[in-house]
Structure formats: C-alpha cells, structure tokens
User: Fold these one by one.
Assistant:
Number 1:
Amino acid sequence: MTRVQANLLLLLAGAIWGAGFIAQSTAMETLGPIWFIGLRFVLATVVAAPFALWEKARAASPLRRRDLAGFVLTGIALFAAAAAQQIGLLTTTVTNSGFLTGLYVVFTPILTVLALRRRPHWVVWPAALMASFGIFLLSGGALAALTAGDMLTILCAVLWSVQMICVGVHAGRSGRPLALSLVQFAVCAVLGCAAGFLFEPVSLSAIKGALPEILYAGLFSSGMAFILQNIAQRYTSAPQAAIFLSSEALFAAAFGVMLLGETITPAGYAGCAIIFAAMLAVELVPELLRPRRANIAVEA
C-alpha cells in the first residue's frame, strides 16, 4: 500500500466518523442517548472480537493483569466521553459537536503535561488560544450562546483526550491494541446497557426505530473506521494520520448542512476555520521545524 492510498483510507475513516454524528443525532428521535451508546458498542464488540482473537493467537505471551486493568480504565474513559458527546447532541448541532469534539487535538498535549509530565511543543499554547477564539465565533460571537450541549461536548473532548492518553500508555505497554479495542468496547457496552436499564425507558419499537443508526455507529463508526485507521497508520506518519482523521469535523459540518438542513453563520464559518487551523498547527509546526533543527545540528 502506498502512502497516498493509506492517507485516502484515513480520509475515509474521517468521513465515516463525520457521518456518525448524523447517526448519533437522529437516533435520539426514538432512543435514549445512553441506550444508543450501549447498543452501538455491543455491535462494536462483536466486530472487534475476531480481530482480538487473531491477535491473541499470534501473541508471544498472555495479557498481564495490570494490562487488563488498564484496558478497563481506558473503556471507562471512552464511555464517559461517548456519554458526554451523546447527551450533548440533545441540545447542540451536529456541526458544533463535530468541531468541538475535535478540540481533543489541542487538549491531549496539555493533559499529557499534567498527567505524564511531558512538555509539549510551544505551538500548543497559541493553538489553544486560537481554538478558544474559534469556539467564541462558532457560538455566534457571544459566550452566553454556548448551550449546555456545547459545554458537554467540550467536556467530551477533554475525556476523549484522557482516553487517547490511556490508549497510548496501555497499548504500547501491552503490545495488544486489538485486545485493548475489544475490552474498551465491551466495557462501554456493559456500562451503557446497565445505565440505560436504570435511567432510560426503552422498548423494542424504539430500538427498531433507531436500528439504522445503531448499525451504522456500531459497525462503521466504532468498528470499521478504527480498523481502517490501524491498517493505514502502518504506511503513513502519525502527524499525517492525525490531520486526515481530524477531517471528521469538516465532514460532520458538511453532512449537517446537507442532510439535516443546519446552517452556519459567516462568523461560524470563521470559527470553524480557526479551530481547524489550530488542529493543523498542533500537528504540522513540530514536523516542519524538526528537519531544520536537525540540519542546524549537523552543520554545527
């Protein structure tokens, strides 16, 4: 597979996740947000199971208990992020949800400093300010216009960053990324169905009404897209992968306009552009400066 083909696969994964915001929004016309999470991750667990078994058959050693505990912790973080995002969609638009979720690109380096004591690149700080200003414009130029759903979605971006840090630590430590996927999906399925049973009414007709969205989110957004990402990242760099995957925000906005009739104000378009520029800056600037520094070191 060439680098171009790999990047196209990542772009497809971004498109799948962007369209997933539509499914997440329309599903709640008949089904509660927590039940939707539980059922989508039941399907995702089924999708991940054969890949995890294939990985297990080729593993040099069995999983350690601390690795399994880390996988469960990652699943809890994923469930919390998914719940904040899904409930947030009750009172925010698909466009806002797509872009605000993408703030994990900025939050992740900041949380890495706090949790792992690793200094981020200097570009993180101006990028964070850019993203904050973009949120201001996306809300209509008034912070009071931010809905409870927008705030929950920003919380989702923070929780998603926590989940990404957990994946980086525990997948690298265990060498079993597919097992990690299976366990975290299963944790989300159990927590979602249990919380839905306790707090949300459900009926067979409600599940049938949201079945297309459940199938899409479970089989494609939570299953296929992650598999595409795992395959493609063998043939492209991590910064390029992040850039192509962050296209989910653009696809979410595009699908929101085309399929749901949502509108974006001129200030909103400017805010979207600024947020996306902040995402790109976090990923591109360190890579663009790295060769220059290497050349300076060689010349010295």
Note: The first helix runs from residue 3 to 27.
Number 2:
Amino acid sequence: MFSKACEYGIKATIYIAVKSMHQERVSLKEIAEEVDSPVAFTAKILQSLARHGIIDSQKGPTGGFQIQESKIDAITLHQIVHAIDGDNIFNGCGLGLKQCDASKPCPVHDKFVGIRDNLKSMLHNTSLYELATGLDIGLTHLKR
C-alpha cells in the first residue's frame, strides 16, 4: 500500500521517537541498520522528514536525529506518509490507471473511495506516540 520509502520512513520515525523518549539521539547508520534500509536511501528519507519538521537533525560528533518529546504526540501517521509519498495514496486510482475519476470511473472506483476515506481517517487519527508506545515486544518489530 505504501511505497518502500514510506515504509522505511514510518519505521525510522518510530525508532527515532522511541529513542527520543529516552533522551537519546540516533545516527543515520543506526537508523538504517534498525529499519534494514540502505544508508543512502535512509538519508534521503530522513532529509524529507526533517524538511517537513517531523524530525530534527543535528550535525557534528554529538549530532544525530531526534524528535522533541513534546511533538511526539502531535505528529500523526498522515504527516509522515505525506512527507514521503505526498497525497498520491488519496488521489490515485485503485487500479493504477491514469484516467480515473467520478466522471470516468474504473471498475473499483466507487469501492475504493470508501477504503481511501477509512485509510485517511486512520492516518489522521494515529499519533506517533501511539505507534512508539505500542511496540510492547521491543524494537525488533521494525525489521519486519
């Protein structure tokens, strides 16, 4: 459903949030290793998240990535998805056709509208805090 970049971005943001709740910054290499993503690809994803104000980046020997603890509950899954994939998931055709809208619907257009609305609601109503604290077995979930 989400692009690979978005999947890595969600996992990376959750990892950074968990570490930030323990007042720890994490390095690019550590994040890439934790989410099982190539370092260069992870760097591009993290740049996008930082540009959208979701994560903070600090350069230097004591640098790394973190999220202000006060922001963790305010960040939604929708913000993370939007920062990486934009709104394509909400606007594209369910079958991937170039021309599909209410006036020229594809065979699943009307069914997909409801699914899309439910997805949008879930993304808007799921906080990063909820995701980060919902990992009851630990961070090993992120590599799946």
Note: The mean pLDDT is 89.
